[in-house]
Predict the 3D structure of the following.
Amino acid sequence: MALDYDALNENVKKCQYAVRGELYLRASELQKEGKKIIFTNVGNPHALGQKPLTFPRQVVALCQAPFLLDDPNVGMLFPADAIARAKHYLSLTSGGLGAYSDSRGIPGVRKEVAEFIERRDGYPSDPELIFLTDGASKGVMQILNCVIRGEGDGILVPVPQYPLYSATISLLGGSLVPYYLDESENWGLDVNNLRQSVAQARSQGISVRAMVIINPGNPTGQCLSEANLREILRFCYNEKLVLLGDEVYQQNIYQDERPFISAKKVLMDMGLPLSKEVQLVSFHTVSKGYWGECGQRGGYFEMTNIPPRVVEEIYKVASIALSPNVSAQIFMGLMVSPPKPGDISYDQFSRESKGILESLRRRAKIMTDGFNSCKNVVCNFTEGAMYSFPQIRLPPGALQAAKQAGKVPDVFYCLKLLEATGISTVPGSGFGQKEGVFHLRTTILPAEEEMPEIMDSFKKFNDEFMTQYDNNFGYSRM
Ligand code: DCS
């Protein structure tokens, strides 16, 4: 039978997604047995106690229950700007939240997204080239689906990377072409490495068609500089690559030297001929930033320099799924047009959003400093995104013990950490890393007041682990 394991599509079996892999499954088991688990494996802020922003929930609540708008007491429960905004979004739908929308998303919301991009970048954006999606993930999958024709097609992906990319490329039967980020240069991207990766792939008969950047980086947390983005865009121009700009963490910036700058803005700043020729698809989401509305599944992508006939084809494919979530589209509309100064809800909205971002900035530092105080652990500062990605230098005794247990060394370490402390992380091997180098990824999302205790418990476990396995013969290398 087609759904017997042996008969399954091999691409399904090959595809790996570590963020919900062995560690997560073991953590779920331990939780069922009554152990307290701190789930730092997924960037899922509300699951770790982050409160939703009030204004967008008020608006969407009214859209979900439009009869409340007819209630004479509605003004006692909801501020006037939330009521007005709910009416605005309902007027953009064709039958409220229970009706499918256009497969590209509600035109009025796509217009709001275009206006946001214009304000952000200072260049025009066309709503017809913006598609709303169920989270950024679906958008990435749609675009990779259009690009990958078979295993001869290669996609340049950073290593370490967020495994949405490796998993989707496997699923679609394409080839992942890795380019390595340099840990000793704060996870910087060296264009010479890119050239080598492309040359090597081509020598194996792979046609490299697209390049992925994640800015700010997951799991690595680095923010790309404008100069680096220029080099990348020029590289894509020379090599005729589509650039897929994953910019879902654009609000999550924790340093002031390198504010977020979009690939679209840098491309437009570069002028002709690049600005009219480099093909770029940029992704965004409501799951990250100070919104953290992961469960709503809202996202968009914007296409630049993609020919109209191709946009039509992407529209056709999107139509097969009928419509992105309509309530999530409204979250996206709200994210790109939040309350403005002078609006009734402005003060509360800005207090809430600033509070979350400032706390994330402090947590990024507490985590990095905490890791750097541990034996045999080194960690670059989390400049952006939601993760810390410390390198764990494992002593030979630990490598041997892992081998005996039949585990990859970082999986072994993370399992021990989970059993001892309840901290559920993702082993670095799930994101790809250089041979013989080990990491783990945690989110920086646990509540700030719990952070010192979590880091103390990590340090206690780690330092004991290192002492236990330390036989003084050299370590896994840097
Ligand atoms: N791109 C990157 C770089 C991500 O980290 C994520 C989610 C996505 C896209 C997709 O998000 P949405 O589909 O929700 O918009 N990050 C996962 C992670 O590493 N932990 O949590 C989810």
